[in-house]
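During the reporting period the student researcher (J.K.) took over the structure-prediction task from the postdoctoral fellow and processed the backlog of single-chain submissions. One of the processed entries is reproduced below for the supervisory committee.
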Amino acid sequence: MAAIAANSATLHEQLREAATAEGTRYLTARGEITSQGKVVLPALHKAADDSALTWQQRLMARICCEWLERGTEIDALRKHSWETDPESDMWWKSPRLVSRAGLGADLFGLALQRFRERRLWYYYVEIIWKSTGEYRIPRDSSFHGFWPRYAHKALCGEPEFYFVIRILRERLQRDPRLEHNDTRDARVELYERKTGEAIPELLLTLKACHGIPADTQSAEWHTLQALLASVDRLIRMARPQDADLISRYIAEYPQLQGLNPKVDALRKRPPVAEPAEPSFEPGH
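J.K. obtained the following structure tokens:
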């Protein structure tokens, strides 16, 4: 039993290392897990639903399971011959038919169909989360920028999209100053989806979004009016359990005090349950 516990502790640390890594370091950390082969699958399956681990570690366990159990299917998608796909051959026969947006854009509908047929949900989550570049084989600039978009769209409506939301929220936590394009994109998507559970992260980004100086008293009137409109929008998105957090934010700005009645009304709404993390169902 002690040996099993020690092995579990090692695996959990490997999952933590991979979950926090990026780029080449990430691929190396993932490889240290998957190189153990299918013998590690029982432990990974257990870790995939282990509430004692972080959501990032659980997600990492699921990604490793998919590479071990369905790696050949991932490679088949990456090597899919769009040239011979009966529904796409028109683009290859007549390059003049390719739009200015490029082949990757023109094939979006077909690619989305093929991605959904494969149901490689955790591979899709991974390339959104870690930007691994493990896209089409051979590498093709026509597809490279679109591969994560296909994955993102394919996940919409699936239980595993839960992890996409967690990833977008994590980006805002790491970059509340909105210094990177993917963070700005994450903020826009969370707003457009009216993601109530992302209120804490969206509040963090408001100063950067509206260019509010550290000395808030020196902020220009039109800037504070834009901030007021943003906070008002967040209140409409928010859950009752976010009321105290929003109230504390409003307290920092005399110009926002008029929103307090809306926060009081928010407190009176019925509680909203946290989104549930899907259980791990390989290949569902």
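The committee noted the following: DSSP finds 16 helices and no strands in the chain.
J.K. will present the remaining backlog at the next meeting.
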